[in-house]
């Protein structure tokens, strides 16, 4: 199976931004609702959870494409398994939270606990995702254990978009502050 790519870059890290931001934010909104009883916070949390669920499904699809290219019985596969299991659990908890609240976004049953679990789960899972990239080289050019696998092009003219984006870099100065 090919790796997921958009304009020459891995797609999965681009898509994880929505659930990685929305799940902790939704928990904060739920906690604010719990503290103030202001339904606006509960409504915003509900829509945040819904957005996280949709974004998480897209990220999961792209991640699964990359996952299926990783060799068995490797440390990378082990880390990817844990990352995927955590994300699967987060998605189940989030789906349950959304379903429990679909008729009324206010807290019902253990919805605040599910929000906390989702927020914590996505943070822990993100740590393992970072380990995959920064320590194990997953999808890092010249280092990646799946570099030999072909890429699926996500958009018509994908290579032209990649070329245009890379070409735009030459117009940006390379100077800037450095911390020593």
From TrEMBL:
<feature type="transmembrane region" description="Helical">
    <location>
        <begin position="44"/>
        <end position="68"/>
    </location>
</feature>
<keyword id="KW-1133">Transmembrane helix</keyword>
<keyword id="KW-0472">Membrane</keyword>
<feature type="transmembrane region" description="Helical">
    <location>
        <begin position="12"/>
        <end position="32"/>
    </location>
</feature>
<dbReference type="Pfam" id="PF09990">
    <property type="entry name" value="DUF2231"/>
</dbReference>
<feature type="transmembrane region" description="Helical">
    <location>
        <begin position="80"/>
        <end position="100"/>
    </location>
</feature>
<protein>
    <submittedName>
        <fullName>DUF2231 domain-containing protein</fullName>
    </submittedName>
</protein>
<feature type="domain" description="DUF2231">
    <location>
        <begin position="8"/>
        <end position="141"/>
    </location>
</feature>
<dbReference type="InterPro" id="IPR019251">
    <property type="entry name" value="DUF2231_TM"/>
</dbReference>
<feature type="transmembrane region" description="Helical">
    <location>
        <begin position="112"/>
        <end position="134"/>
    </location>
</feature>
<keyword id="KW-0812">Transmembrane</keyword>
């Amino acid at each position: 199976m090919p790796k997921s790519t958009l304009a020459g870059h891995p797609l999965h890290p681009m898509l994880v931004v929505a659930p990685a931001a929305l799940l902790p934010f939704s928990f904060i909104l739920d906690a604010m609702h719990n503290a103030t009883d202001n339904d606006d916070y509960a409504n915003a949390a509900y829509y945040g959870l819904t957005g996280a669920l949709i974004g998480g499904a897209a990220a999961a699809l792209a991640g699964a494409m990359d996952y299926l290219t990783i060799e068995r019985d490797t440390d990378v596969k082990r880390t990817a398994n844990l990352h995927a299991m955590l994300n699967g659990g987060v998605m189940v908890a989030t789906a349950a939270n959304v379903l429990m609240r679909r008729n009324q976004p206010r807290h019902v049953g253990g919805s605040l606990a599910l929000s906390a679990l989702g927020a914590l789960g996505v943070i822990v899972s993100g740590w393992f995702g970072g380990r995959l990239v920064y320590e194990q080289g997953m999808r890092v050019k010249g280092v990646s254990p799946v570099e030999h696998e072909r890429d699926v092009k996500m958009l018509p003219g994908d290579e032209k978009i990649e070329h245009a984006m890379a070409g735009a870099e030459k117009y940006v100065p390379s100077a800037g502050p450095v911390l020593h």
